[in-house]
Amino acid sequence: MTWYTLLVLAVAVERLAELVVARRNAVRARARDGVEHGRGHYPVMVVLHTGLLAGCLLEPLLADRPFLPALGWPALALILLAQALRWWCITTLGPYWNTRVIVVPGARLVGAGPYRFLRHPNYVAVVVEGAALPLVHSAWITATVFTLADAVLLTVRIRCENAALTTHAVPA
Question: What are the entry keywords (predicted)?
Answer without folding.
Answer: Membrane, Transmembrane, Transmembrane helix
